[in-house]
Amino acid sequence: QQPVQSPQAVILREGEDAVINCSSSKALYSVHWYRQKHGEAPVFLMILLKGGEQKGHEKISASFNEKKQQSSLYLTASQLSYSGTYFCGTVTGANNLFFGTGTRLTVIP
Amino acid sequence: EAQVTQNPRYLITVTGKKLTVTCSQNMNHEYMSWYRQDPGLGLRQIYYSMNVEVTDKGDVPEGYKVSRKEKRNFPLILESPSPNQTSLYFCASRRQTSGKAGEQYFGPGTRLTVT
Description:
The complex is a heterodimer of chains A (about 110) and B (about 120).
Chain A: E1 4-6, E2 9-13, E3 18-23, E4 30-36, E5 43-49, E6 54-57, E7 60-65, E8 70-75, E9 84-91, E10 97-99, E11 103-108
Parallel strand pairs in A: 2-11
Antiparallel strand pairs in A: 1-3, 3-8, 4-5, 4-9, 6-7, 7-8, 9-10, 9-11
Chain B: E1 4-7, E2 10-13, E3 19-25, E4 31-38, E5 42-51, E6 54-57, E7 65-66, E8 76-78, E9 87-94, E10 96-97, E11 100-101, E12 105-106, E13 110-114
Parallel strand pairs in B: 2-13
Antiparallel strand pairs in B: 1-3, 3-8, 4-5, 4-9, 5-6, 7-8, 9-12, 9-13, 10-11
């Protein structure tokens, strides 16, 4: 029941933008996004609920298309601190949260 | 301070020697869960619990047991560890009300090596 994330890895220069996609084969109630720094626990970024909403968090925002069962995370004007592995988590009817395999983002000067 | 704690943080053990990894949260969360993280496989759920005395299997439950006797604690038990259970383990908790899953908090992780 793991959602599928793409790309698996991306390298950016500071100031560049990136999009990380997350898709599920099941109907979704909500989508969660987390970021994990190397050697640390994942940290919550945002939740998107049914209704096709878009949310923002500093220069990081996300959208949720419930009809397509997809979500995208947008990172604009990337900073070195954005480096890490990003996970989407999807919640289906069972109210359980399943995580994707992650997208490793590296921002270089 | 709101937190999820896990112990031990690092553990090296031998095949077949029973072990328990403890997890505790101080946020009165209904939902708790265990994940294992392996390179390239992301976070895979082992077991989860919607509330006290309510537990269920996740995607990779084989070789693991859990219990939820108190709301704050959710220990992970490996009755007979094997080398393929060498991994990084995370405990997590969140509020679960009216069918809505809230922000999930993760513990610091337990790195387990089974030789």
